[in-house]
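Exercise (ungraded).
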Amino acid sequence: MTLSISKKIIFYVLLIIFSLLVFSPALIALLMSFMSSQDIMTGKIIPTEFSFDNYAKVFDRFPLFQYLINSFIVSIVIMIGQLLLASLAAYAFVFLEFKGRDFIFFVFIATMMVPFEASIIPNFHTIRHLNWLDHYNGLTIPFFATAFGTFLLRQNFKQIPTELKEASQIAGIGEFKYYLTVVLPMAKTSLITLGVYGFVTSWNMYLWPLLATTNDSVRTVQIGLRQLQSQEQLNEWGVIMAGAIIIVVPTLILLFLGQSKLQKGLTEGAIK
Amino acid sequence: MNEIAYQPEFQTSVNFTKEKKKQRISNLIKGILFLLPSILLFGVFLFYPMGKTIYLSFFLTDNRGDPTVFVGLENYVKIFQSSNFLQSLKSTLLFALFTVPGTILVSLVLAILANEKLRGIGVFRTIFSSTMGISVAAASVFWMFLFHPTIGWLNRIVEAMGFEAVGWLTDPDWALLSVSISTIWMNIGFTFLILLGGLQSIDSYLYESADIDGAGYFYKLRRITIPMLSPTLFFVLTVTLINAFQTFGQVDMLTRGGPQNETNLIVYSIYQEAFMNYQFGTASAQAIILFIIILLLTLVQFKLGERKVHYQ
């Protein structure tokens, strides 16, 4: 399908206008993070002078570094936990035949109907009872099991030829070894997709870290930003924006790198 | 002779069924082992809490959330007589009414534009999907500034156009709409990406034959693109609808449920009732209402979307 020049121009104009509209909230924040308070008050668009003062201030006044480390630990632990549990479960659903498998599969589907938000009260009590408040365990372990991740990997595992499994059985390769040495390497792309997705969603989690942390020891960046925003109301917008920009950079980089894979994975996992 | 010949065959068949049984048991054990970690965690952090929430919704509780007095359905009666909860339900429905069509419409336009094969289209796709990587907290901070009564951009634009400044987050008539606008922005990235995926999977053959027939751009859009995209649209519809009912972060950051409870969406209401007022019984009853709503929506998604959402 080739387009005429005039149509092309219309498309480019529309694309540019919409891009500016969509990107402006983030772009404004980025520019503001380099501005002095005076620039912000007078409504400048481009800072009169690019300065990193706000970034220095936000690290100086807030335990932002600690928050970042906490978020990294929490997100990576959840990511690994999800990859492990989802791949094990998906393996069972694809390669093992046993009584009750369909029932368990139904249970997995049923988990998608239970919103986490509706079960926060007992979960909070469980975490407190286990002494996991203000502890990495409380922030990570509840999120290891994922039905979405299991379905995503299952879809991919199903494309591995069954002859491979039969051959390995004849060669006397055990179930776990087959999972580890054949299935996982072959499903690398979906594992990366799920990994990126798991990392990004964990990094951006809000409600649960708000409940499960009461001090700075394991508090994540999102809740850190909430603190920053509620304490820095005195027109220190540059500092707040610097904090927000630092928080979104890791996930944005991950998304830009994995965009095409993520799109494919999400569409497949969600729709197929 | 005959009997002797029969014997070994009989034995192997016994061995065979025995082996098969053994195999079946070993498969069962293996299957359970592979699934155990997930089942265990789902049990502890999803099914048990769900049951416990139902249980708690029939009780009065102390400050720590331990049940004290059984009150039957009284908590439910109470929440449906409480103007706060009814207001919260109404706000949540309105919020869904604003954000779901808004998100889908904007994302659809973006996806259709970004589906053209043009040079440099990848850059636009990246920009459109970028809000997916921006957390609720950060996005709320961005919008908080845009909504700022004096130095925010929205009011500067409004005033430059000669209108009176709007109390975006402080005026009860505007607050819910403002939160909805910021939410639509946050939703765009994900919805756009899914819709773009749907558009890309439409067979280009359909467009080629329409081109031969001399069909115009909007004719093709209406007659090919939208119908072929309908399963994806349906999926996106239910996902954004479910998300709308689970919204919490932007309310907490932008308005804390105010002004006059106008933006007190259901999850925020549960949070307040449980963790600020320590009314765990009524909070659980509210959580059950939320659960029922989500359950129904998911069932509709499975039922109506069966052709596309099949898990065999």
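Further reading is listed at the end of the chapter. For now, observe: Chain A has a mean pLDDT of 88. Chain A touches chain B through 98 residues (CB under 8 Å).
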